[in-house]
Amino acid sequence: xxxxxxxxxxxxxxxxxxxxxxxxxxxxxxxxxxxxxxxxxxxxxxxxxxxxxxxxxxxxxxxxxxxxxxxxxxxxxxxxxxxxxxxxxxxxxxxxxxxxxxxxxxxxxxxxxxxxxxxxxxxxxxxxxxxxxxxxxxxxxxxxxxxxxxxxxxxxxxxxxxxxxxxxxxxxxxxxxxxxxxxxxxxxxxxxxxxxxxxxxxxxxxxxxxxxxxxxxxxxxxxxxxxxxxxxxxxxxxxxxxxxxxx
Length: 247
Hints:
Elements: H1 14-29, H2 41-57, H3 64-80, H4 113-128, H5 134-153, H6 158-179
Helix pairs in contact: 2-4, 2-5, 3-4, 3-6, 4-5, 4-6
């Protein structure tokens, strides 16, 4: 019997997640004579993208601004954890604002880039969403272990696995440390500035009577001061309000 499941549904809800892991486990534990099929890079990447969406949706004290920031770092980590395995692509280290360097793989040794991606995504999700629940962190741990176990079962060299895991985690760790200085680190703790003096006059923002939030203050009003990924983006002039006739 061969594996016929689909990793992309691993993170689409608590019950679906547990049922899928259980069913796939049954498929394999009853068929120990035949090697497991290693998941493709696309399947693992899709699984972690789904997991990122799940963690974003079910993490308390989150906000659209903080979540969009997280997606930027999560996506960058996915790219950087494998880029050195593809000669036609370049690392973004040295090209992004303040990201001067990232860990480099050792020369002359082999890596499994799927395992590196897997470790990097688990690490960045655990750190950038540090406020998520313990149950969600266990989901992250389970997916990470589940993918690695497939390669171990197929006798992938243990040193390659360990080296790839450590590299993926080192990339995620470096990117997370860089993220902490962008102005939005743990921004969910300061969603609203209650000392903010709101502008007045025609065209000025006013809090809605009934909004998505209980607060009558704008969400993250200083978010525009955060460090941008590209330095030149921060130098763009603020658009002026277009003249209009309120009549």
